[in-house]
Amino acid sequence: MTRRPRPSIHKPDAGRPARLPELRLKVRAAGRHPWFYRKMIQKPKEPLRAGAPVKVRDREGRFIGCGFYNPRAELALRMFSDGEVRDVAHHFVAALDAAIRLREDVLQVTRVTDSYRLVHAEADGFPGLVVDKLGGAIVAQVASLGMQTQLEPLGESLLRHYPKARLVLLQDKDWAEREGMEKLPRPAPVSTTVREHGIRYQVQAGTGHKTGFFADQRDNRLTVRMLARNRDVLDLCCNSGGFAMNAVKGGAVRVRAVDLDEAMIDQTRGNAEANSLELECVHGDAFDALREARAGRHDLIVLDPPKWVANKNEVDAGLQRYSDLNRLGIEKVARGGVVVTCSCSGSVSEERFVRMLRDAAAAARRDVRVTALRSAGGDHPFALECPETRYLKVAFLHVR
To answer: pLDDT of 223-251, one tens digit each?
Structure first.
């Protein structure tokens, strides 16, 4: 395997480890989960600035690693290392280099796409930071005060790896409020072209949902392409048309793409024309589209709604919306058809998602088999010690 040359990075002078202030927990650290809430932390002996890196010991005095401390937030401590850190900036630059090598040298995602996640938050040891490469643009979205203090050296390192890239910085609005972060101005979008499995997408990086393109559905879009032959396909909440265009590529006899966002419908229509793919684009609500659909007309339905559960307080209401949408999809799909249903809500566990599908199938009075239960691609790894990093759930259902 040919390895990409590694860019040189500044290495700190050898010497004594930097003396990070120490923080003590009220609890015994029984596992390696990287999150600790305010009630689990002893009051520091000396004032610490919000977002400061700290060395952490548990109630019994055992060293457990280093993290960012933010007393303004309920989630007050986010760990980024289980070892000593000499230089915090260098630590993250080295971690970024490792994350890039995983995607490009180990997973070799560049063979099929130029759109992929470079940094997946806690799964890569970057609490509250995601970074996506979208063609010629790199979009970072920050959701923690501590990580925001490290953005400058990370940006410099990204430009060493990708000298021609245009950098876009987004701030997660909800988390900015929770963390007490200074509000950053909304950046101007960057127009770029993304390629994925032979399809080109025009993308406005830094706009719309997430970072501007759903790179996490890449493998699932390809599976829909393989399932679509001779099928009538309905793609709901189509965003930029990824599932719909792959269905056309796979030999679907008819494809209808629906989204409530008119800008996404325009983008889907433009992407289809640029790839010489014929499909129908409809501005509308997913629930209305299903209610109005003739039962049995569509034999492949894709349900990929936006994030309906932003936090644990919204789980019950969000699950009801998911259940209603999936009941309609299961009711309306043809016998022997396929429903591909998704949830990107990290607060909804895979177990609860499957339970919701079971209840939706029962309400629809249809026999349903799960043929595959998936998540995002390998460029969105999840950490075993932090199950929240496995946020995307995708179920392929065979409906009889």
So the answer is: 999 999 999 999 999 999 999 999 999 99
